[in-house]
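Form 7-S
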Amino acid sequence: MLSAKRFLLLLLILSLPFPALPVVDLYEFDTESQRERYNVLIDELRCPKCQNQNLAGSNSQIASDLRRELHRLLIEGKTDREIKDFMVARYGDFVLYKPRLQGSTLMLWLFPLLLLAGGAIALIMIIRQRRQTNAAVNDKSLSDTEKSTLNQILDESEESSSQ
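Output:
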C-alpha cells in the first residue's frame, strides 16, 4: 500500500506539465535528394503563425500543413524556386527567412550596411577630434616665466623632502 508521502509525490509528479515534444512528420520520398531538399526547405521557410520559427521547429497546425504541402510539391517534381514562389504567393515574403531583394525589402537589405557606414563615420570623426585635442594640448608650451616658477617649486619640494 502507498504511504501518504509517496501518494502525494506521485500526485505532484502527475500534475506537472510534460514538456512539449516536437512533432516528427514521417514522409516517404522517392529519392534521397528529395529528402535533403525537404530538410533544407523546412529550415529556410518560416511558419506564418509563429513569430520567428522555421517550419522544422514549429508545432503549429499551419506549419504541419505547410510541411505536408511541401512534401506534396516535392513529390510532384517542383523545383525549389517554384516551391518558394508558391509559398510567397500564398503567405507573402514573411514566409522566407532570407527575403528576396526587391523594392519592398530594399531597406531590410540596406539598413545593416547603412548602420555599419554610420558607425565607421562616427569612429573616424571621434579619432580626428581626439587627435586635434591632443595636438592643441601639446602646442601649449610653458613660457619662460612659467618654467622658472615650476622649477622653483620643484626645487623647494626636493629640499623640504630631503630634510
